[in-house]
Amino acid sequence: MKLHEYQAKGIFADAGIPVPESQLADSVEGVLDAVAEIGYPAAVKAQVHVGGRGKAGGIKIATNEDEAREAAESILGMDLKGYTVDQVLVEQGVDFVDEYYVGVTMDRGEGKPVAMVSTKGGVDIEAVAEEDPDAIAQEHIDPAFGLHPYQARKVVYDAGVPAEYARDVTSILSKLYDLYEDNDASDIEVNPVMITADDDVIAADAVMNIDEDALFRHPDLAEMEEDAYQNDLERKAGEYGFDYVRLSGNTGIIGNGAGLVMTTLDLVDYYGGTPANFLDIGGGAKAERVANALDMVFSDENVDSVVFNIFGGITRGDEVAKGINEALEQFDEIPKPVVVRLAGTNAEEGMEILNTDLVQVEATLAEAVQRAVTNAEEVAQ
Amino acid sequence: MSIFVDDDTRVVVQGITGGEGKFHTQQMLDYGTNVVAGAVPGKGGQEVEGVPVYDTVDQAVEAEDANASVVFVPPAFAGDAIFEALDTDLDLVVAITEGVPTQDMAKVNKRLGEVDTKLLGPNCPGIITPGEAKLGILPGNIFESGNVGLVSRSGTLTYQVVSNLTERGIGQTTAIGIGGDPIIGTSFVDALEAFEADTNTDAVVMCGEIGGEDEEQAAKYITENMDTPVAGFIAGRTAPPGKRMGHAGAIVSGSGTGTAESKISALNDAGVPVGDTPEEVADSIEDFL
Prior knowledge:
The complex is a heterodimer. Chain A is α+β, with helices and mostly antiparallel strands. Chain A has 13 helices and 18 strands. Chain A has 3 domains: 14-92, Dna Ligase, domain 1 (2-Layer Sandwich); 96-222, ATP-grasp fold, B domain (D-amino Acid Aminotransferase, Chain A, domain 1), CATH 3.30.470; 232-380, Rossmann fold. Helices cover 38% and strands 25% of the residues of chain A. In chain A, the strands form 5 sheets. In chain A, strands 7, 8, 9, 10, 11 and 12 form a 6-stranded antiparallel beta sheet that branches. A 4-stranded antiparallel beta sheet of chain A has the order 1-6-2-3, covered by helices on one side. Chain A has a 4-stranded parallel beta sheet with strand order 14-16-17-18, sandwiched between helices. The longest helix of chain A is centred in the middle third of the chain and has 20 residues, at 163-182. Chain A is elongated. The two termini of chain A are 40 Å apart. Chain B is of the alpha/beta class. Chain B folds into 2 domains: 1-123, NAD(P)-binding Rossmann-like Domain (Rossmann fold); 139-289, 3-Layer(aba) Sandwich (Rossmann fold). Helices cover 35% and strands 22% of the residues of chain B. Chain B has 9 helices and 13 strands. Chain B has a 7-stranded mixed beta sheet, sandwiched between helices. In chain B, strands 9-8-11-10-12-13 form a 6-stranded mixed beta sheet, with helices on both faces. In chain B, α5 (155-167) crosses α9 (278-288) and α7 (214-225) packs parallel to α8 (260-269). Classes of the chains: A alpha+beta, B alpha/beta.
C-alpha cells in the first residue's frame, strides 16, 4: 500500500524529521489560499500514486499568483499515467545547494532490511544504482536489534556526506528506520534530502509504502488506504477480493494459484494470443466466487474469449462447475466463448455438473489455451 | 529414499482446531502421515480427528515425540507460531499460512540462522514423499512414488507439472513447495542440495517464477555443485513490471530485476533446459531418465 507524499510527510513531521511547510488543496482557490499563507516561491505537487510526477507535468513551481493559478488549473483534474489528480500539496519552495538520497528497504535476497545513503540525490536512484552502484552506501540491519547508531553514522560517512551535514543526515536516517519498523513499511525513502542555502537539512520528498499483510496491526494507516485503483476493473477486483492485473490483450484468463495463472498467461502468449488479464480466484473458491470471476472478465471490453483453467488442490471441481453454470445460465446468449479445463480434486464430478451447452471443454492445459486463442482470433475478426 | 520427510516423520499440527487445520489434518491422516499431535493455546486436552491437542508445541513434542510441524495459524499469529516451532528443536517446520508480514519473516529468518531446524514456506503448499508422508495441502492422489525430485515456488503449478510427469509413469522421490513470499525459509539451493545428496533422486524439476534472484542463485549452485540433471520452468514471462502477480514475491521490480528472461538465461547457462510449456519440462525429464 502506497501512502501519498502528504500523508508520509505528516508522519515524518510527527517523528521530528524536518519537512518544508505545506498545505493540501483540492481546488484552485484552495491553492491560492495556501500560497498566500506559505509565500513564494511555492511548489504545487500532484498527490497521486505514480513515480516521475515532475517529468509528467505533475509538479510546478510558482513565483507569483498568476503562476500559482496556472499551476493549479493545469494540475488539478489532469490525467497522470492513468490517475486523475484531485489533490495537490502546496509547499514552500526550498533554495537548495545539494541533494542527497536516504532510504530503508527490504533486501529480500538477504532477508534483512538495508539502509541506503547517497550524495547523488534528486534523480532516479534506481538509475544511479545501475550506472554507479558505488555511489550508494549500504548497511544491512539485523531486524532483531534494529539500526545501531554506529551503523547509521557509518553508512552516512561511507556515502561521503560532508562532516557539517553528517549529524543531521544520520538523524534523518535513524528516524526513518524507526518509522520503517514501527509502521511495517516495505520501503521508506527521502529523495531528495535537501541541503539549503542556510545549511539546513530537510526532507523535500517522502515515499512510504506499507506491507499490506501487516495493515491489520496499523488501523491508523489502514484508514489512509483510499482507493488507488487505476481503473474500474481493478476497483471491481478489489471489491471481489481477487488478485487481478489488467493487461492489454483480448484473451481473458481465470485460474487458481498464482504460478498456474501466470503460466496460463504465458501459454496464451506462446500459442500466439494476447493475455487480457491475470485473475487468481485463490484456493478453495466456492461457486459464487467463480461466478464473480466470470463477471469480472466479461466486464472487460477488450476480452473476446475466456479460458478457465483449474487444477484443484483445495479448490473443488464441482464447486467450480456450479459457479460457471450459475454465471452463464443467466445469459440468453453467452457474451464471449468460454473454454474450461478442470483437473485435480473432484474434476470428474465437476465435468458431470458442467453445462457443456454453454462452454467448450478441453482435457489439457495446452488444448484449452490453444482453443481460447483461436476463439479470440475468430471473435476479433 | 527421499528428502526431509518419510515414514518416520511425526507431525504436530499448529492451529489444528481451525477450519483449515482440521480439514487438512484429516487429509494428511488419510494419506498415511503420522499426525501425532495438535498444538493450540487454550485447547489442550481436546482431540481433533482422534489426534490429541496440547497447549504448546513443547508439550506436544514431549508427549508424542513429534519431530516436524505444519503451521495453519492465521497470518497475525503465524510468525509467533513459527518461532515457537523453531525454539522447540524440531527437524522441519512447514508454514502453509499466506499473508505473514514481511518484517515478521525477517525476524524469523534471523532465528533460522541460529538453529538446525529447516523451515518450508510460508505461503507454500507443503511437502510430500509419495506413499510415505504428506505435510501440507497438496492433493495426494496426483503423486506417484519414483525417482524425480521437484521443487517449486507455486502450489498449483506444481500439481500441473506433477500430473504431466505421473501421466507418463514418472514418479517422484519428494515434491517440495518452498513458497511464494519474498522471504522464505528453504530456498531452491537448499532443496537442490538435498536432492543432489539423495541417491534415489535421478533428476530434478525446478519451477520458478518472476521476482527476486533465487533462481539465479540456483543456476550458480547447479553449475558448481550438481551432477543430477535439472529441468526448469519459469512462470511470468508475460508479467508487466511493477505489478504483484498474486504471490507477494512475484513481482518484476521497476528497475528490471527479477524478470523471467534473466532467470531463463541463467538456467540455460547452467545447462538446465527451461520448458516453454509444462509438457516440455516432462519431455526433458524423460530424456534424462
